[in-house]
Amino acid sequence: MSDSENIDKATGVLEPRPGRIAGRMHRLRDLLVALAALALIAIVVGFFVFAGRVGGQTENRPAAVSADAIVVLTGGRARLEPAVTLLRQKRGARLLISGVDTDISDATLRRTLGIDADLFECCIDIDREALDTRGNAESSAAWARRNGYASLIVVTNDYHLPRSMLEMRSALPDVAIVPYPVVNTEADADDLAAFADRYRVLFGEYAKYLVARARTLSF
Questions:
Q1: CB-based burial of residue 98 (10 Å sphere; 0-12 exposed, 13-18 middle, 19+ buried)?
Q2: Which DSSP symbol is given to 60?
Q3: Which of the 8 DSSP states describes residue 95?
Q4: Using the 8-state DSSP alphabet, how is residue 185 labeled?
Q5: Share of the chain above pLDDT 90, in %
Q6: Cα–Cα dist 16/9, whole Å
Q7: Distance of CA 122 to the CA centre of its chain
Q8: Residues 37 and 91 in one domain
Q9: Residue-range definition of the domain harbouring residue 193
Q10: Do 112 and 33 reside in the same domain of the chain?
Q11: pTM over 0.90
């Protein structure tokens, strides 16, 4: 019989000695620590890959983008104005503004963006049901199917685009999605506060992106 084992007198069962149990626990703990370290490294490396991908989107944006229609995910004028410009340039037949606050009237939105009444009435739809990115995708999918669109330009901030594309492609697997990233403000490398704020936003979006990616199983 091994020195690391003994026989329980009551049951007659061969049991490992306490030292052997402790050794197994130490090995398990070391394995868990190693796995946690690898996971942390993967998350950090993944974040910098994500940040680099976001930073290069606007430079790679196609100049002559066009599709059946346009969707803009609300979040500020920096998103809305380029979407309206695309509509005016006839890059899409119709524009959906998804996720508009229920407190903002159509008239207020039209005046804020400087849209003439004829264009607003003929070619712009407002969605007030979407409360988040997943809701944006679901509302956009229903709108696209209702109108028979086979392709959409999706306008949103550059940092928000990777997650938006995951949700849109999950909700609309048979529709061609054309990304159109915009930037609120360019971070000045000499302005440390703005630079730090940019990376804070990026990291928060990266965490949401990982959750969306796991949920939609889009790799």
A1: buried
A2: T
A3: E
A4: S
A5: 47
A6: 13
A7: 31
A8: no
A9: 69-216
A10: no
A11: no
